[in-house]
Give the backbone structure.
Amino acid sequence: MEKPPRPDLIDFHGISMIHYFTDNWENIQNFQARPDDILIVTYPKAGTTWVSYILDLLYFSQTAPERQTSIPIYERVPFLEISIPVMPPGTELANNLSTSPRLIKTHLPIQFVPKSFWEQNCRIVYVARNAKDNAVSYFHFDRMNMAQPEPGDWNSFLQRFMEGKMVFGPWYDHVTGWWEKKQSHSKLLYLFFEDMVEDTGRELDRLCSFLGISPSAEEKEKVKRGVQFDNMKKNNMTNYSTIPVMDFKISPFMRKGKVGDWKNHFTVAQNEQFDEDYQKKMKNPTLRFRTEV
Ligand code: PPS
């Protein structure tokens, strides 16, 4: 069977998108959130799967251990806006979830989030990753994921990253928009990928206190072990090996999981240009990222 071509970037209300994330738009916008839903939000490649798995283990590893070995993470934590031929649309998966709470993932910039999540005052966990590592991870993802636009070479990808011509739009506006929302929506926890790498246990504690749950020390230790990079990479239910559109011969989904891999990709000139452009775009002094730990 002939493979479908890679999708083109489209301009969607001022944000670059691909049709796989806009085809189901009415159902996305009309999605009915419930008060105990937990929305996991990230710019792509910022640690979505990591935090999704942490939450899933925290809530369900005791009561439904069979989930861990039989249902891939992307079904346990549906991706709200996705609509691709190989699986049911994210809204349908989310509507069919029988768990409570429901864990739902999205990459939508703040202005696109279905209004019911605000009306229901849902808890939201946002994960942000420094722009340089985020761009590198996104580049390798676009190389191996045939449902993403063609990335081109690293230099042209990086230029487009700076221009915001990426699926889900500019990284800069995404991380800032959600950061600023924290001021008015108290049920938003803003985590940093770098903090999670530095001390997963500490961030796990922050997460538990935000969620109002108190797992035992033993349970927390189990979660910490399960979500270690090497364990998630080996685990077929968390490493995306069951998704047909990804070519792991090009690059694995669980690639490196490091802070600072950008240093292996950016030339000195690219780094200078990126930093200069970054200063112009990132105006909020309270939002600070670490590019090494
Ligand atoms: S996606 O496609 O947007 O859902 O991808 P996402 O899960 O957000 O990001 C994938 C990157 O996160 C890394 N990752 C981890 N790093 C450290 N520890 C753990 N447990 C972990 N789980 C996922 C993953 O390796 C991708 O980053 P890179 O830099 O490409 O390795």
Summary: Residues 42, 44-50, 137, 140-141, 227, 229, 232, 254-257, 261 surround PPS (CB under 6 Å). The beta strands are 10-12, 15-17, 38-42, 103-106, 123-128, 188-192. The chain is about 40% helix and 10% strand.
